Amino acid sequence: MENQPHVIDYNQPVITVRDLYKSFGNNHVLKGVDLDLYKGENVVVLGRSGTGKSVLIKIISGLLKQDKGTANVLGEEVAKLGGKQLQELRLKIGFSFQNSALYDSMTVRENLEFPLVRNQRQLKRKEINESVERVLNAVGLSQTINQMPSELSGGQRKRIGIARTLILRPEIMLYDEPTAGLDPITCIEINNLMNRVQETFKTSSIIITHDLTCAKATGDRVAMLLEGKFIKQGTFDEVFNSDDERIKSFYNYNFIK
Predict the structure, then answer these.
(1) Rounded-to-integer distance, Cα 220 and Cα 4, Å
(2) How far apart, in Å, are the Cα atoms of 225 and each of 19, 65, 76, 131, 234?
(3) 27-35 long-range contacts, Cβ below 8 Å, gap at least 24?
(4) The whole model's pTM is what?
(5) What's the rounded Cα separation, in Å, for the pair 5 and 12?
(6) Domains in the chain: boundaries
(7) pLDDT, tens only, 53-88
(8) pLDDT interval class at 1 (50, 70, 90)
């Protein structure tokens, strides 16, 4: 299902990245990156492996520090925040990891309860139960509540990982390769889920991927990252209606194999 237009407030940026540089030794990963994410928008960051896509969202979430430039999230300059301030900001950011990052020794219920109990200690049992049921319903997996992660398929684990991220009601979602390693049918389910999350929870999202089907299905805007810089941004069709051989070869590699 291709992404449908959403209500986006272009007067309200929730992430503003300017002139961002990051190197690891002699490996210059980001070389002056600019990016905006607006309230209610899904932005897909496309690029081959090793182009700096994951580095970008780690800087945005404060897991890495840039060498130069600024990353402003919800009005806060991330690199200047102290530990407590950074923790408070991260509670407003949902990070969906590539491997789902579930605790294997916990049931689905316990995995979902963990961030609530850790961060909102004042909640009563009834409120915790209602929150768990709400996010499980949102990802369509209410029946798995007492199962262990080892009993779930790869797609189910991915959806439970997204549910655990949603339970704190984040304003921003950061998805790192959400369809990696999944079969085509499950990829469609995850793409549709990300669109439902955007609509239901009113999130703004950055989706890191090299999967063009995912990009077309979920992205209100697509940003192509190549050799440390964004070389083109726009709708999926605007980006790939290009004579740039670098963009054409990326498209062909994905769709003509």
Answers:
(1) 8
(2) 14, 19, 24, 37, 12
(3) 28/228, 29/55, 29/228, 30/55, 30/56, 30/59, 30/66, 30/228, 31/227, 31/228, 31/229, 32/69, 32/228, 32/229, 33/69, 33/225, 33/228, 33/229, 33/230, 34/230, 35/223, 35/230
(4) 0.91
(5) 17
(6) 1-92+176-191+202-257, 97-169
(7) 999 999 999 999 999 999 999 999 999 999 999 999
(8) very low
The Cα 206–Cα 178 span in angstroms is: 11
Residue type at 159? R
Q: What share of residues in the chain are helix, strand, coil (percent, to 5)?
A: 40, 25, 30
Closest listed residue to residue 92, CA positions, set 196, 201, 221, 199: 201
What does the pLDDT read at residue 51?
A: 82
Amino acid in position 38 = Y
Q: CATH number of the domain at 1-92+176-191+202-257, please?
A: 3.40.50.300
Residue type at position 109 = R
User: Can you tell me the distance from the alpha carbon of 238 to that of 242, in angstroms, rounded to the nearest whole number?
Assistant: 8
